[in-house]
Amino acid sequence: MIDSKGKRISSARVERSLFISLIAGGMGSVWFIFCQPQQILTVMIRNYLHASDQQLGTFVAILNMAGVFHLGAIYLYSKTKRIKPVWIITTTLSRSSAFFIAAAALYVYMGGDKNTALWIVMGVSLVFSYMLGNISGSGWWTWISALIPEKTRSSYFGKRSSLAQMMNIIFFFSATWLLDIFSSDIFLIYALIYLVIGVLGVADILLHLAVPEPVHAHERQPFSRNLLLEPVRNKEFLCFAVLTGFSVLSIFVAAPFLAPHITSPETVGAPNIWLGIMFFISQLTWMFIAPFWGMLMDRMGQKPIVLLGLLHPFCYPLYLLLTPHNYEIFLPIIAIWTGIFAPAFWEGITQMMLAQVPSKNRTAYVAWYWALLGMIGSLGNLLGGFLMEHTGSLTITIAATLLLTFLSFLVFGSLKVTATARLDHVVSLITTPSVYRTYSQLSVLSGTVRPDKVHKALKDVKNKSGVLAFDEVCSRLEDPDRAVREEAAGAMGRIGTEAARDILIAQLNNPDSLVRPEAAAALGLMQDLSAIPPLIDALYTGDEEVQEEAALSLGKLKSEESVKALKQIIEEDRSQRVKVSSVEGIVHQNRLEAVEEIMKLWEQTSNKILKTQLSISLGNLIGNPGGFYRCVTGTQENRDSAIANLFKDIFNSLKKFEIMDSGYVSHIIKESLPAVEESFTARDFPESFSTMYTIILNLIFRKLEMMGYEGDAENAGCYLKEKDSLLFLGFHLYSRLEQLRIEKLCEPQPTDILLGVYFLKSYCKRETQRGR
User: How crowded is residue 677: how many other Cβ atoms within 10 Å of its Cβ?
Assistant: First the structure.
C-alpha cells in the first residue's frame, strides 16, 4: 500500500498505525458513552434536568434521525481529495460538544435555569455530537477498513471494542461513584466529568494524525445523483440496511427508559453507583467476550453472531421484577447477560455492513447505512416515548421491544448472506467446552513460541472446536519442526471439514511434502469416502511408510472400493509391513476374507512384531476391537495380569452359559479349561493348544448339530461362513493352526492359545445374550 504522500505503508507501519488507532479508540469510546443518550446523559436529562418521558423519547429519536446527516458525507468527500484532514477537523468540532455540556452543568450549579440548560444540552448534542459527527464519520470507516486485511478485520475490531470497554469501565464507574458521593454538588461533578470527557474525545482525533491514509482508500468522484443514490438502488444492500435498522428500532423502544427506571425514587430507587456497577459488570464481560465474537465472525461469518446478539433484549423482563429490596440480585444478572450478547449484535452489524459494501464508492454505502440505521432506529425511541407518556407502563414498552425483537430475529434470519455458517452450527460450537480452550490457544498456534508449546496446543485441537483454528493449523503443516508438522496433520484430520480434507489430499499428492504419511493417516480419521481415490494412488506412489498409513486409512473408510484395493496390495509383491497394514485395514471393516489373508501372512513372516500385529487383527475380528491387544502388549507383569483376567472372565461367562448347555460346558469348566490354563502357565504350549483345540471344535460341532447341519467336517467351514461368522472364525483359525502344527511342525505360540480363549469368551457372551 502507498499513503497519500507517496510513501510505502509497510506491514510494520500498518501494525503500528492500528495500535495507535486501538489506543485512540479507547479514549474516543469514553466520549461516546457519555455524550450519546446512554445511562449518564439520559439520567442527567430525565432525573436532574427534569425532562418528561415524551421529551426524552423525542430527544433520543431526533438524535438518531440525525443519522440522515451521514448522507452529507457523500457530498463532502466528493469535494475533497483525502478523507483524513476533513474527518479530523469536523470530528474535533463534534467532540467539543462535551465542553458545552460541561458549561451547561456549571451554569445550573451557579444558579441557572434547568430548563435552559436542558435545551442547551439537547441542542448541543444534536448540532455538534450528531450533525457534525455524522457528516464525516463514514469517511473514517472507509479509511480504516482500507488499512485492515478483511480476513482479520472482525478480530481487530473485537480487540478495539475490548479495550474500549475497559476504558469505559474505569471512567463510567468513577463517574457514577463521584455522582453518588458528591450528590449535593451534582451539577459541579457533571461539569468536571464532561470537561475530562471532552479532552479524551479530542485526544482520540489528534492521535489519528499518526495513522496513514492509503491512497486507494478514497476514490474521489464528482458528486452526482447517481453517486448519491447508488447504494439505495442496490437491493441487497438496501434490504440489509433496512432489516438492521428494524432490529435497532426493536431494541430502542425500551432502552432509553431502563436506566431512569433503576435510579428513580418513584420506582426502584437504586443509587447512581448501581449504574456504574452494572456498567462495570457488563463492560467487563463485553471486554472479554468481544474478541471472541470477533474471531467467530472472521471464521464463521457475521450473520449467525448477529442473530445470537438479538438475544440481549430478552433480559429486559427482569427490569419488571426489580424492587428496592431485590435490585442487588437482578441487576448483576442483567448486566452479565447484556455483556455477553450485546457485543455480538452491535459489533456484528458493523462488521456485517463492512463485509456487504463494495470497495468502490464505499463512503456512500457506509453513509447510507448509518443514515438508515439512525432514521429507522429513531422510530423505536418515538414509539417508546409515546408508550411511556400515554400508558406510563414500562411493562407495555418492554413487551413491545420483545415482540419487535422476535420479529427482527425471524426477518434477519431470512437474509441471504454468502460464506456464513448456519446458526445451529455456531450454537453447537459455542456450547462445546473445548472451543474456549482452542480459542485460548490461538495466540500460541499463530505466534512465535517454542515448538513444544505449539505441539501441545495442536494436540488440544478437537474435531468440533478445531474449525476455529483451521488457518493456524494449516500454517503449521510447513513448520520447520518435525513434531509440529506431524501433529498439525493429525489436527487437520480431527477438524474434519471439507477444507481440511482438501488440504490433506494436497499434502498427500505432493511428492515434496514432509507430512505425506501423517496426511494419509489423518484422512482415515475423517470418514470421508471422497478420500479413497487419493489414498489408493498413495499405495502406488508413496514410500513404504506412506503406503502403510494409506492402507490403514483405507480400512477405516468402509467401501467395496477400499477393500478391493487392499486385497490387491496383499496379492502383489509388497513388503510385509505394507501387507500387514492392508490386512489390518480389511479387519477394520469386519470382513471374513481377512482371516485367510492373515493366516497366509502369518505363515510368511518371521518377524515377531508383525506376527503379534496379525494376532491382534484376528482378535479384533473375533471380539471387541482393542480387547485382545491388552493381552499381548505392555510389560510382562501387565500382560500376565490381563491374561489372568481373561481366564477369569471366560470362567464367569461359561458359568452363565452352563444354564443353557449344562453337559459339555460343565466339563469345560471343571476339567478342560483348568487344564488349558495350567499348561499355559507352565509354558507347555503344545499341550495347552491341544486341549483348547478340542474344546473349540467340540463346541462348534455341538452348535452345528443344533443348527441341523448334516454334512461332513470338511465342508463345515463353508456352511459356517454363510450361517455364522463368529463360529467360522473360530473353526477356520484353529483348523488352520492345527494344520500348520501337523504339516509344518510349527510349535504353537502363546498368542494361538490366547486367541482360542478370547474366541471362547466372545462365543459364550453372544450365546448368553441370545438366550435372554
Answer: 21
579 Cβ contact partners less than 8 Å away, ≥ 6 residues apart: 569, 570, 601
Residue type at 561 in one-letter notation = E
For CATH 1.25.10.10, list the domain ranges present in the chain: 432-443+452-591
Q: How many CB atoms lie within 10 A of CB 522?
A: 29
Q: Mapping DSSP to helix (H, G, I), strand (E, B) and coil, where does residue 567 land?
A: helix
Query: What pLDDT does residue 591 have?
Result: 63
Half-sphere exposure of 282 (CA within 13 A, CB side): 24
What is the predicted pLDDT for the residue at 409?
Answer: 92
The number of CA neighbours under 13 Å toward the Cβ of 628 is 27
Grid look-up 432490529 returns 247
Which of 708, 705, 700, 693 lies closest to 727 in space, CA to CA?
700
Q: Find the helix packing angle between 516-525 and 498-509, rounded to 10°.
A: 150
Polymer length of the chain: 772
Query: What are φ and ψ of residue 476, in 5° steps?
Result: -80, -5
Helix (H, G, I), strand (E, B) or coil at 241: helix
Distance CA 86, CA 599 (A): 84
Q: In whole angstroms, what is the distance from residue 27 CA to residue 36 CA?
A: 15
Q: What is the C-alpha separation between 345 and 434, in angstroms, rounded? A: 24
pLDDT digits (tens, 9 = 90+) for 36-83: 877 788 888 888 888 887 787 778 777 777 777 778 888 887 888 888
Residue type for position 255: A
Question: Considering the domain 432-443+452-591, what is its CATH architecture?
Answer: Alpha Horseshoe (1.25)
Cα 589 versus chain centre, distance: 33
pLDDT tens by residue, 11-30:
888 888 888 988 998 898 88
Phi and psi at 340, nearest 5°, equal -80, -50
Start-end ranges of CATH 1.20.1250.20 in the chain? 18-428
DSSP 491-544: HHHHH--HHHHHHHHHHHH-TT-S-HHHHHHHHHHTT-GGGHHHHHHHHHHS-H
Assign 738 to helix, strand or coil: helix
How many Cβ atoms from other residues are within 10 Å of residue 590's Cβ? 12
Per-residue cell: 490 = 493429525
Q: What is the pLDDT of residue 192?
A: 93
Q: Tell me which residue has cell 489373508.
A: 597
Residue 747 is given by DSSP the state P
The grid coordinates listed for 537 are 494412488
Q: Which long-range contacts (CB under 8 A, 24 or more apart) does 679-686 make?
A: 680/643, 680/750, 680/753, 685/747, 685/748, 685/749, 685/750, 685/752, 685/753, 686/741, 686/747, 686/748
- Please check whether the domain covering 18-428 is classified as CATH 1.20.1250.20: yes
